[in-house]
Amino acid sequence: FAGWNFSEEDASFQKLAKVGYAAGVPMGGTLEGQSSAKAPGFLVGAIKDPLSGNLDRIQIVKGWLDREGKTHEKVFDVVWSDPHNRTLDKSGALTAVGNTVNVEDASWTNSIGNAELVGLWHDPEFDAEQSAVYYARVLEIPTPRWTAYDKKRLGYEMPEGTKMVIQERAYTSPIWYSAD
Which of 46, 76, 95, 175 is least enclosed by beta carbons within 10 angstroms? Predict the structure, then answer.
């Protein structure tokens, strides 16, 4: 959800949908600009698939056109697992969640990551006069890639350099910000 008056208190699964629909727009919607230059808030939440890896992080992907018509995209880490031990560095990059994958056994453990993540984010580079599009991307912890399963179950030897681990992702529909 995107809106103009969300608070940190709103960022809970108990309130997310109720507050989001009452005070903002859902995925697929358009958030109309206001006279204030204040950045809108984005309420995000995700729950893991019961048969898959825990969640690593939620990111917001922002896209926009500059005055010359050139497209831009920037990815922001919004909320992540183990926030006490993982931080953003000076460039804004988040330290890795870790990796529990055993490639030989094509297995992993959910001993890292979280079953659910929820948070509130404001665009630190918001320009009230610039239309933009925002969507959330949710990353799971690393898990075995299909190549690891083929190697174990079928006894295939994989060529050197074959990726054996993947970090699955899910994407939301966008929310459009209209400056007009």
Answer: 95
Write the CA distances from 66 to 30, 52, 61, 69, 163, integer angstroms.
19, 39, 16, 5, 36
Q: What is the pLDDT of residues 18-43, one digit of tens each?
A: 999 999 999 999 999 876 778 999 99
Distances in Å between the alpha carbon of 121 and those of 5, 30, 61, 67?
A: 12, 17, 12, 26
- Those residues whose C-beta lies under 8 Å from the C-beta of residue 131, and which sit 6 or more positions away, are 64, 65, 176, 177, 178, 179, 180
Does pTM top 0.85 for this prediction?
A: yes
Tens of pLDDT along 112-121? 999 999 999 9
Task: State the DSSP code for 69.
Answer: S
d(CA 132, CA 14): 29
Which string of b and e fits 142-179 if b means at least 16 CB within 10 Å?
bbbbebbebbbeeeeeeeeeeebebbeeeebebbbbee
